[in-house]
Structure formats: structure tokens, C-alpha cells
Amino acid sequence: MDSTNFPPQQRFQPPPANSKSIAAMVLGILSIVIPYIGLIIGIVAIIFSAISLKEIKRTGEQGRGMAIAGLVCGIIGTLIYGIILLIVIIALALSYSSDPFY
């Protein structure tokens, strides 16, 4: 048999992953791990996740799971550092208002 009679086989290539969803996941994880700037990183992760989910719906790219993971981690990181910031502000306000030497 001669193999030149067969057409070349096309390889299946899945659609590429959305790069914003990868960035959202990385930033979401960092928002939980990195202290002090986790609040800002978490907000950026939420924004990137929202943008990437819209792009994935429109273009059919891969990465929906990474975008959701970035969204969840970004929300958790934002809440953690938001609560910590709120506790610090309340503690400072109470310490200044109950100062006996003032």
C-alpha cells in the first residue's frame, strides 16, 4: 500500500486559554497569600475575572474554571484584608477615644 494516497490528518487543537483568566487566578491566589496589599490585589483579581468571563462567553476560549477560581480567591482575599483593616480602624478609634490623658 502506498501512503501517499491518504490526505494528511488534521490534529485537533483545543481553543487557547484566556490569558486574563490565568492572570485572575494568579492574582486571586496572591491576594490571599500576600499581606498588606492583598486588598488591592484581590480587587484587581475580581476585575480581571469579570472581564475574562465575558470574553470567554463571547469567544469560546478555555479558562472558565481559572476565571472562577480567581474570582473566588479574589473575593476571599478582599474580605480577609477588608475585615482586618476594619478591625484596625475600630481599634485605633477606640484607643483614641478612651485615652485618659486626653
**Distance between termini?**
100 Å
Unreliable sequence segments:
none
Approximate shape: rod-shaped
The total strand number stands at 0
Oligomer: single chain
What's the number of domains? 1
- Biggest sheet statistics: none
SSE topology string:
HHH
C-alpha-based Rg, rounded: 24 Å
- Helical amount: 55-70%
Which whole number gives the mean pLDDT? 90
Look at the helices and sheets and give the structural class: mainly alpha
Approximate strand percentage: under 5%
Number of helices: 3
Outline of the structure:
With 102 residues, this protein is mainly alpha-helical.
Describe the model.
- With 102 residues, the chain is an all-alpha fold.
- The protein has one domain.
- The chain is built from three helices and no strands.
- Helix 1 runs antiparallel to helix 2 and helix 2 runs antiparallel to helix 3.
- The longest helix has 34 residues.
- Keywords: Membrane, Transmembrane, Transmembrane helix.
